[in-house]
């Protein structure tokens, strides 16, 4: 019997290698297509986030909104995103990753239509709330779906596309918004939502979710469709099924389960990265970049164009190296750059407040902000979402991922709300605070965050939750 077993292994190995070699050109095709339709949701996310800046003056004039009414319109996006974050995890577990993305797309479409047809503040606000809900749900389910369908060799690079498309959506919305009316811009916002909704009918569901639901035939069919018809999926399918079988013996996850000892490290890693990503100042600086440049005496329009281009370019250049450099080194390099950028900006405003070297103030301000946004785009922007999509066991992924996304959106609201108050208190002190928080992020990453590069999701669980 042992001879037969040994012999079959000797015969099988070259055949597996041959099959893998034959299937290599076709293997990523369906993964790429699935990722494309998923990140259409990320582009929709960016379109929602970038809408209010170019549309602000026109909406206020056309609908006679006060500053307070428009401020409410802007903030409802974040509140809607919080609701989306809370509910997206359970929805993704109940109806699948594709189903959750369809729900997100539908909310965004309804929201954009409400904004387009709005004659007053009520319809406008309801539309903004709906797009916020869709945006918050997309922010959770897109990286989760990509992580669950992608091979381990380029999972990080594909997951990073989520952040690239968010940045691109923001930049495109800002540029197009200077060329068309706010109602037309709302209609344009429907395009990526519709592309995602319709495209999801052409791609397979997450094999890991299908396995979790006990749909074994569909699970293997989806995995084969993703890996290629000639690929040997037996080992990967067995690993996924063994892991799911182990999880099935565990009770269904509830909110309090996140604080059990076996999950606490996963929760700490994901929640910690989300806290440092947001409280390091990104949304305050992003939302009020023009104000920062204006206060520093740098041309606002030029600064915004440089900012938008740099954000997309750095994020795009970062994607191919995620699976080579690893998650942890990118987080460390990024956080270090954030500290440096904040300190340079702090020096700029310190000089301005004390009337020292006035010619250096605008130069230092723009250099500090560009170092900051370039560093954020190089790691801290995308990596927390990549790690979150990998770090949770699948039985708590819905609850834990939804809560981590909620923490992220709460941080986004808190930082964007308090930024102007902090700048009024002390412009250079604001950036010193952000520098200190990003310095703590470096310590956190070194001490707590594991390297997940080149590991399957099941191997990551064994590492993080032994």
TrEMBL record:
<feature type="transmembrane region" description="Helical">
    <location>
        <begin position="329"/>
        <end position="351"/>
    </location>
</feature>
<feature type="transmembrane region" description="Helical">
    <location>
        <begin position="157"/>
        <end position="176"/>
    </location>
</feature>
<dbReference type="GO" id="GO:0016020">
    <property type="term" value="C:membrane"/>
</dbReference>
<dbReference type="InterPro" id="IPR044775">
    <property type="entry name" value="MFS_ERD6/Tret1-like"/>
</dbReference>
<dbReference type="InterPro" id="IPR020846">
    <property type="entry name" value="MFS_dom"/>
</dbReference>
<dbReference type="Pfam" id="PF00083">
    <property type="entry name" value="Sugar_tr"/>
</dbReference>
<comment type="similarity">
    <text>Belongs to the major facilitator superfamily. Sugar transporter (TC 2.A.1.1) family.</text>
</comment>
<feature type="domain" description="Major facilitator superfamily (MFS) profile">
    <location>
        <begin position="34"/>
        <end position="453"/>
    </location>
</feature>
<keyword id="KW-0812">Transmembrane</keyword>
<keyword id="KW-0762">Sugar transport</keyword>
<feature type="transmembrane region" description="Helical">
    <location>
        <begin position="431"/>
        <end position="449"/>
    </location>
</feature>
<dbReference type="InterPro" id="IPR050549">
    <property type="entry name" value="MFS_Trehalose_Transporter"/>
</dbReference>
<dbReference type="InterPro" id="IPR005829">
    <property type="entry name" value="Sugar_transporter_CS"/>
</dbReference>
<feature type="transmembrane region" description="Helical">
    <location>
        <begin position="302"/>
        <end position="322"/>
    </location>
</feature>
<feature type="transmembrane region" description="Helical">
    <location>
        <begin position="363"/>
        <end position="387"/>
    </location>
</feature>
<keyword id="KW-1133">Transmembrane helix</keyword>
<dbReference type="InterPro" id="IPR036259">
    <property type="entry name" value="MFS_trans_sf"/>
</dbReference>
<feature type="transmembrane region" description="Helical">
    <location>
        <begin position="399"/>
        <end position="419"/>
    </location>
</feature>
<feature type="transmembrane region" description="Helical">
    <location>
        <begin position="130"/>
        <end position="150"/>
    </location>
</feature>
<feature type="transmembrane region" description="Helical">
    <location>
        <begin position="182"/>
        <end position="203"/>
    </location>
</feature>
<feature type="transmembrane region" description="Helical">
    <location>
        <begin position="72"/>
        <end position="91"/>
    </location>
</feature>
<dbReference type="InterPro" id="IPR005828">
    <property type="entry name" value="MFS_sugar_transport-like"/>
</dbReference>
<protein>
    <submittedName>
        <fullName>Sugar transporter ERD6-like 7</fullName>
    </submittedName>
</protein>
<feature type="transmembrane region" description="Helical">
    <location>
        <begin position="263"/>
        <end position="290"/>
    </location>
</feature>
<feature type="transmembrane region" description="Helical">
    <location>
        <begin position="29"/>
        <end position="52"/>
    </location>
</feature>
<dbReference type="InterPro" id="IPR003663">
    <property type="entry name" value="Sugar/inositol_transpt"/>
</dbReference>
<keyword id="KW-0472">Membrane</keyword>
<keyword id="KW-0813">Transport</keyword>
<feature type="transmembrane region" description="Helical">
    <location>
        <begin position="103"/>
        <end position="124"/>
    </location>
</feature>
């Amino acid at each position: 019997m042992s001879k037969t077993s040994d012999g079959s292994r000797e015969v099988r190995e070259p055949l597996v290698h041959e099959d893998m070699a034959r299937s290599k050109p076709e293997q990523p095709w369906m993964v790429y297509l699935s990722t494309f339709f998923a990140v259409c949701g990320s582009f929709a996310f960016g379109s929602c986030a970038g809408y209010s800046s170019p549309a602000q003056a026109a909406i206020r004039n056309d609908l006679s909104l006060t500053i307070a009414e428009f401020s409410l319109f802007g903030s409802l996006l974040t509140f809607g995103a919080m609701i989306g974050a809370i509910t997206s995890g359970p929805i993704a577990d109940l109806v699948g990753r594709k189903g959750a993305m369809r729900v997100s797309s539908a909310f965004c479409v309804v929201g954009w239509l409400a904004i387009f047809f709005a004659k007053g503040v009520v319809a406008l606000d309801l539309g903004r709330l709906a797009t916020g809900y869709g945006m918050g749900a997309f922010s959770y389910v897109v990286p989760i779906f990509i992580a669950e369908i992608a091979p381990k060799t380029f999972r990080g690079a594909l997951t990073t596309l989520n952040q690239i498309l968010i940045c691109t959506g923001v930049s495109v919305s800002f540029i197009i918004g200077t060329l068309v009316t706010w109602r037309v811009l709302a209609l344009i916002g429907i395009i990526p939502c519709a592309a995602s909704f319709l495209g999801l009918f052409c791609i397979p569901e997450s094999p890991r979710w299908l396995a979790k639901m006990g749909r074994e035939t569909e699970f293997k069919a989806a995995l084969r469709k993703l890996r290629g018809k000639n690929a040997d999926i037996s080992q990967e399918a067995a690993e996924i099924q063994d892991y799911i079988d182990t999880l099935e013996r565990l009770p269904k996850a509830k909110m309090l389960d996140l604080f059990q000892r076996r999950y606490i490290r996963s929760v700490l890693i994901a929640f910690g990265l989300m806290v440092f990503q947001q409280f390091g100042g990104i949304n305050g600086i992003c939302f009020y970049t023009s104000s920062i440049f204006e206060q520093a005496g740098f041309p606002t329009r030029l600064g915004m164009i440089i900012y938008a281009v740099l954000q997309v370019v750095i994020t795009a250049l970062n994607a191919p190296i995620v699976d080579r450099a690893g998650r942890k080194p990118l987080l460390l390099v990024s956080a270090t750059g954030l500290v440096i950028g904040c300190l340079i900006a702090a020096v700029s405003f310190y000089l301005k407040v004390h009337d020292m070297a006035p010619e250096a103030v605008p130069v230092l301000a723009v250099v500090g902000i560009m170092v900051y946004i370039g560093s954020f785009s190089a790691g801290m922007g995308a990596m927390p979402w990549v790690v979150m999509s990998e770090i949770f066991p699948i039985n708590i992924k819905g609850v834990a991922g939804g809560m981590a996304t909620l923490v992220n959106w709460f941080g986004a609201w808190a930082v964007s709300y308090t930024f102007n108050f902090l700048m009024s208190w002390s412009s250079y002190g604001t950036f010193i605070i952000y520098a200190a928080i990003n310095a703590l992020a470096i310590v956190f990453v070194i001490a707590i965050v594991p390297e997940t590069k080149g590991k399957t999701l099941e191997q990551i669980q064994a590492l993080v939750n032994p």
